[in-house]
What we know:
- By secondary structure, the first copy, chain A, is α/β, with parallel strands linked by helices.
- The first copy, chain A, contains twelve helices and 16 strands.
- The N terminus of chain A is likely disordered.
Amino acid sequence: MNDHEKNCKAATIATPQLLSPQNAADLLHSVDAFLFDCDGVIWKGDKLIDGVPQTLEMLRSKGKKLVFVTNNSTKSRRQYAKKFQTLGIEVSEEEIFSSSFAAAMFLKVNDFPREKKVYVVGEEGILEELELAGFTGLGGPEDGKKMVQLKPNCLFEHDKDVGAVVVGLDQYINYYKLQYATLCIRENPGCLFIATNRDAVGHMTDLQEWPGAGCMVAAVCGSTQKEPIVVGKPSTFMMEFLLKKFHTNTSRMCMVGDRLDTDILFGQNSGCRTLLVFSGVTTQSSLQDPTNDIQPDYYTSKISDLLNLLGA
Amino acid sequence: MNDHEKNCKAATIATPQLLSPQNAADLLHSVDAFLFDCDGVIWKGDKLIDGVPQTLEMLRSKGKKLVFVTNNSTKSRRQYAKKFQTLGIEVSEEEIFSSSFAAAMFLKVNDFPREKKVYVVGEEGILEELELAGFTGLGGPEDGKKMVQLKPNCLFEHDKDVGAVVVGLDQYINYYKLQYATLCIRENPGCLFIATNRDAVGHMTDLQEWPGAGCMVAAVCGSTQKEPIVVGKPSTFMMEFLLKKFHTNTSRMCMVGDRLDTDILFGQNSGCRTLLVFSGVTTQSSLQDPTNDIQPDYYTSKISDLLNLLGA
């Protein structure tokens, strides 16, 4: 890169603004819908982050639409709505766009044949969304206890009718599932390889981070030497569904997330305003690291700062 | 690439020769040592490939040194010598260079502190080689049955004294080990990330291929977003040890293998002659695919062709 290019690049990247009473008020007036990531924004594991219910309530009272866009594929939309309810927050299924739902919708809009099957390296959420969309899922938690037999004359059989493999976060990942997915992708002609997302890690519990779907997806890439179709953030695939439901322009939406490479990039790819929070995986120092080239419009500590800054 | 560059590139790649009575005799005269890969060359799973004992015997009778260089880290050198014996072939431990041994040697030559520990995502072979080299290994098969608890207030603890993580082929891969390895690499200052190899698949059984170490290594790359130090083929790290043992020049060695991206590349990187066999993962059509840019000096169906071509 020469000096001229460097200057041009620098000129096109606006410096992120720390959220303040003034720009928080501007943001509130200029958007109709807030899109929230969940892990690290709304909760950590099963624990709500401070001030979340009050913040969401305030935004609803001001007529804002709320949407929850999560890459965590372990639950279906129905299961997420239930989780919100358990945590004391009323959210409808229609307001939730999970990557498990995205995987099923990807197959639907691409006319995936009903007679074909889908092998799942992942958890219950993907299987439930596949079933709701009318597809036959195999694998998932059921295969979590299966062992392999590395013995002479033992042939590991796989279903030749599997036409797609969906890989998401899977705490029951094992060699059986890896071999099953690998055989389908390598040997079934035209078999699709779909990743719910590629998050490296996530707050599966309140106290620490754990390997994310990016770990399982990489494993299957490693054995198949193929790259997946990604349906979760930062892919904008879910935005199409969201726009059908909520009749507003993406420029009047704000994506709120804790990850630069998924949430903020998704927001930017879709043409939304973006707000980064430090209540999840990203720290202020990683935002300001010279190697980081994803800059949100705004950043703040946690979403309840909106409440305090707006004096609501 | 412009036309000139294309021509230059084409000019530097010699066309591989099908093994014939004439060039087989030339090859035999011009080398002192044959380096054999094992999976897909000597055996598939636990089954010997046709004509192997007779071929090795003929080469020994002609005074050739035989060396076995395997990326499969599930066994130690001692365990490999035993496997050869079970299959009716006499091979000494000193003739075997496995990636499990390479991992232990890498730590040794780099003065890895004895008070530090090594976490293993892999099988018995790595742990045994670590122990023989005087290091303390953790993990491995023992952690294959451990489960994780994704519950509030549960903290997954890891040993802060782990200074290296070694990842190899692991048929007992699970989320526990992936989290353990990830925490060590991300949180223990200076922790090394060593891969025995990155083979996508391998003949773990005679009837089919299975995910190789490349699958487990990719999973850990996916969660840590770090790249490993590779000690197995195509890295030439093992060649240093081999040369210390066998006093010959690499130009008088021939590497025989079934994989282009590990065996043949290792041979070329080391300055050896190279012979590709089709008894393992590579087919003639993948050798001749225009996207393949790794060309061996010679190719043939299986190593016993040497026997037939030489009329021995």
